[in-house]
Amino acid sequence: xxxxxxxxxxxxxxxxxxxxxxxxxxxxxxxxxxxxxxxxxxxxxxxxxxxxxxxxxxxxxxxxxxxxxxxxxxxxxxxxxxxxxxxxxxxxxxxxxxxxxxxxxxxxxxxxxxxxxxxxxxxxxxxxxxxxxxxxxxxxxxxxxxxxxxxxxxxxxxxxxxxxxxxxxxxxxxxxxxxxxxxxxxxxxxxxxxxxxxxxxxxxxxxxxxxxxxxxxxxxxxxxxxxxxxxxxxxxxxxxxxxxxxxxxxxxxxxxxxxxxxxxxxxxxxxxxxxxxxxxxxxxxxxxxxxxxxxxxxxxxxxxxxxxxxxxxxxxxxxxxxxxxxxxxx
Length: 330
Ligand code: ADP
Known about the structure:
Rossmann fold, 2 domains, seven-stranded mixed β-sheet, four-stranded parallel β-sheet, binds adenosine-5'-diphosphate
């Protein structure tokens, strides 16, 4: 790739929507890659809200020192209602122009990219997206930044619940985040050897769950763990546990909701390296005239995917992972 002809001088970077561990590593990579190509990086704080409020500052190499290992995002994040209005986006554009920002790197999930698509269709400002979400629910990348860390946190928590569950002959429902996606639930479930996994993509009815639990009880399992993806409705596991408890009394039933625990913590090596690779590729993409696309890694290769395609759900992995979880949970 040759970047000599790129007229871009000031590249804005922001994190938006749900925060994810590894976002800092991506910000760092964007800032350092800009420096490498003698471009100025500009931090936009609090996502689209900060863009509208003009919360914009130049970044230096030192602004991103000592953050690769830190969870959360130094740029802060937000969910912005105002950005969904034409007036909000107009204000955001004016602030970017007065700060001299001539291209954007958006680090976030599908909502962030939907906002970016609309923004770049209304205003002439190139945008490249970096997938930063614990949900791993974007097309065009094998993994999103934060997913590996979230799954590791979930698996470690489930291991701990297993210790207490098997000491008391208990059935535990462990609820994990995953708005419309069972990806965290499935992978954590396989890693921690759970007995069943309930995901929004392939709903399991209570009869089937009771049958699985009965069969485990017949084989004298000392505990049973069911991992439940919240599926956009936190607390879903409480309703499921209540229903199961009414029909099946072999185990004492408990519920643990992991919730926001999964968003925090130091990113794993996999997330740090993914974020570093994607940060470099995002800046190089912008300098190479790419816009309106998300950068991802597919089969270990950098790949750009138009935002419209990136935000449609992928199911193939789900089915295969579910098949593996089912085979191994007997
Ligand atoms: P994520 O990026 O993690 O999926 P959200 O769904 O909250 O998080 O989206 C982040 C932000 O993107 C929203 O708060 C909003 O400001 C902006 N956004 C999302 N969808 C749209 C849209 N259709 N039009 C304009 N902005 C949007």
